[in-house]
Each structure stands twice: as C-alpha cells, then as structure tokens.
Amino acid sequence: MDLDTARQELEEFIPHVKNISDSSIRKMAGRDLMRFKEFKKQGMAIRFGRFTQKENKQIRKNVEEFLALTGIDSAEKLLFTSRYPSYKDTIHRLKTEHHFCEKISEGIPRPWRLIYYRARKIFDPNNYKGRYTKEEKEQLKKYQALHGNDWKKISELMSRSNLSVAMKFSEIKSAINYGPWTEEETQKLMSAVKDVLRRKLTVENASSLSSLEQPDSDLWIDREQLQQALPWTEIEAKVGSRYWRQCKQKWNSVLTRKLTRGQKLYRGTNGLKTKITLIKRLYQTKAEDASEVNWDELSNAIGDVPRAYVQAKFYRLKVSFVPLWKRRTFSEIIDYLYEKTLPDLEEKL
C-alpha cells in the first residue's frame, strides 16, 4: 500500500493522522490498519486515553498466552529483553516466529505501540515498590544530577521502573526562582563550581590547581575535567535561590561559551547547520527511546560542547517544530523532525 493511501485509510480511525510522520504511518499501516478494520466490522471504535480494567486484563491474558506459546519463562524477559543480554537473540527470534505484535494486541482496539507500552508498565517488576523513603529521594536527586534524564539508567540503579523514577523526580522539585539569572546568582554559581573543582583537584591532581586560580583564563582546567559530572545538589545549596537543574543548565551555558570561545553555535547560519546535523544524527541512530542515544557522541558531532547542551537543543527542536509532541513516542518525534522539519531547515540554509 502506498503512503498516501495508508494515511487516507488510517484517517478514518485516527483523527490526528495528518500530524503523524511518514515512517510512523508505514509502521501503523503494517501493524494496525487490518486490526482497525476488523474492529470496525465488530462495531468497535479505536480508543485512546486511559486503559480500562477490561483492557488491562486482556493485555495480561495476551502476554501470558504468548509466554506459554514460546516457552519464554517470564514477562520481564519478553518485554525488557535488554535486561537479559544472553537471551536477546533467542527472544527476538521467538517474537518474530510467533507474531508478537499481533498476539499482544489481540482484542484491544488501540494502536499497537500504546498497547506495548501499557504491557511494559503492567509487567515491570520494578514498578510496584511502595513509597519512596527520604534516603531514596535524596539518592534520586543525586543520580539525576549525574545522569540527567537517563531514566533507564537511573531505574536500574534504584531498582525502580523508568516511569516511577521520572514521575517521582518531577514531584520532588522544590519551589525555585524562574526569572533571569542575576549577576549575584551567577557569581555564587561560579564560586560553588570552583569550590567543587578545587576540592576534586586537590585529591586527583594538585598540579592542576594553578590554572583554577587564573581569573582571566578562558579555560580554568582541562576540558575533560570541566565536563565531568558535578554534585549538583551540593551546588544548589551553595547558590540558594535556584534549583539544581537550573544551576546545571546555567553552568552548561557558561561552559559551552568557554569551550567555543563565545561562538554562537545555535544562531544564524551556524544555528541552522547545528539543527540539521542534530536531526540527521538522531535519525541515523534508529533509537526507539532517548535512553538509547549516545549523547556524548552526538555532542562531538555538533561541536566541542557538553552533552547537556545537545539534549537541551533537542528539547527545543521538538517543542518548536513537532505538533502534539507529548503524545508521540521518541522515534515518532525523530521521524517527524527528519521528514517534515529537516527539508524546511535545509531550504532555509
């Protein structure tokens, strides 16, 4: 089926289909269109939004039947195969042979990908661990300071689900000043970062301390040391008026300016080139989730900038150019940027 026909036929079932990328349309035409037509014959409309108890029960039934069919011994192995690298090839083969996509979505009038994500939430053993202790909350803040929004990594470190750690982190954000940084706040931040770096260097390499004392130097210390993870919750406490994420973002903007000697990487012609390169590189990764992207490698492709700089620019891209981005998966956002936004940016360049 050609793309225009697929889009036209899917429009009957999905009102916002015009905002879905070509790549996602192709996937839905293969995975969902025949299912949608069958549901229509049965008088069932395609559903979105909150899953019902009946749908959750059907998902459980579908997963359990697939496990019985294939001999895979747990839902966690089936749905979180990356946690079991030694079984990866076998499980992927069994999924293909026994039509995993069709089996897991049987009897549920929703797009396949939404059903898959719901199944992962239901069967993730790390998703039901009770209330967070005070120690866990502090631990979560520290891990987020180290790893950013890499919820997959943080979930593994805390033995909680991706969704659980992401939701809890958003809950524990403190009330902060959202206005422009004052000169006094910036000086407090710079002083706090210097204190931390000085303490680290005292332990690691005392000979590098001299460069930290040069007020007019563009680079205080080696770039590798400048870009290392810092204890942001400690720096937050020293700044006082800002949440630690703001401190990290402000430091990254200072660091980027230092590393690029003040070049405006994200403005004018350079800005267009940076956006184009970022979209192309993200598309080439074929990642299904942001946690699968090597952001350090991407930052090297963009320029000599911190990974947080690149992550922030990707966020601005999706917010600025992708309609209904909150309702799309990571891969759908990348597909849209590549197919819809990229040609316009290249023409503008």
From TrEMBL:
GO BP annotation list: termination of RNA polymerase I transcription
What are the record's GO terms for cellular component?
Answer: nucleolus
What top-level branch of life does the organism fall under? Eukaryota
All copies of the Myb-like domain together span 124-172, 173-255
GO molecular function terms noted in the UniProt entry: chromatin binding
CDD domains found in the cross-reference section: SANT
Under PANTHER family, the record lists: TRANSCRIPTION TERMINATION FACTOR 1
Q: Which protein, by its recorded name, is this?
A: TTF1 factor
Q: Which organism is it from?
A: Spizella passerina (Chipping sparrow)
